[in-house]
Design a protein that fits this description.
The structure is a homodimer of 111-residue chains. The first copy, chain A, is an alpha+beta fold. Chain A has helices at 19-31, 34-41, 45-59, 80-93, 96-108; strands spanning 2-11, 14-18, 64-67, 75-78. Chain A has one domain (8-108): Orthogonal Bundle (Arc Repressor Mutant, subunit A), CATH 1.10.10. Chain A has 5 helices and 4 strands; from the N terminus they run ββαααββαα. In chain A, the strands form 2 sheets. Chain A has a two-stranded antiparallel sheet with strand order 1-2. A two-stranded antiparallel sheet of chain A has the order 3-4. In chain A, α1 crosses α2, α1 (19-31) runs antiparallel to α4 (80-93) and α2 packs across α3 (45-59). The longest helix of chain A has 15 residues, at 45-59. At the A-B interface, β1, α4 and α5 of A face β1, α4 and α5 of B. β1 (2-11) of chain A pairs antiparallel with β1 (2-11) of chain B, so a sheet runs across the interface.
Chain lengths: 111, 111
């Protein structure tokens, strides 16, 4: 047997941030577009796009800066506030795996 | 915004115990039958029954003692091992909500 956990942040009962959403946003930032990240993560573009809308709606600010055209050909990148939100979520979640495992061992080890 | 979490225990990718399953088993124990507990929790009998099977299969022992007939009219009650498993899961999960909230505040408070 093994312990499992999930952590996320909601607003009014709707998910705003989760480890998966952070992965999605960072994939978009690295790939430069929602469509490329969606392909990498093997999810429909529409789903990726909807998640971004939910994140921005929940946080109340833009997390992606989607430039159109220009010398670099445009692209989607994290805004400074978006980058900050990612860092905060990572800080929130950091070390929980160790904590959960320790709790599990303490509670379920033969004694 | 508010932090949320879920904790559970799996075996080979299948859920064995969770807070909800502990609630279910304790409701069965209190009500004296799977059907009465299922009605209380507003879930189909079949679903409750299947969860009990999954729990027992995952743990590898009986958590419910289902007596048939007798002076008390039979009924389903936690076995000593089942009661022990419930206590261990509660110990595993105890105080985790506080921990999650503290980490959330630390990570997301304005600073």
């Amino acid at each position: 047997m093994e312990p499992k956990f999930n952590l996320w942040i909601e607003r009014d009962g709707v998910v705003v941030l989760s480890a998966w959403r952070v992965t999605l946003l960072e994939a978009i930032d690295a790939a430069g577009s929602i469509s490329a990240a969606a392909e990498q993560l093997n999810i429909p573009y529409r789903r990726a796009w909807e998640k971004v809308q939910e994140i921005e709606s929940g946080l109340g600010y833009r997390v992606l800066d989607t430039a159109v055209g220009g010398p670099g050909g445009g692209g989607a990148h994290l805004t400074p506030a978006g980058r900050e939100a990612m860092a905060r979520f990572r800080r929130f979640a950091e070390g929980f795996d160790v904590e959960v495992r320790q709790r599990y061992t303490a509670a379920f080890s033969a004694d």
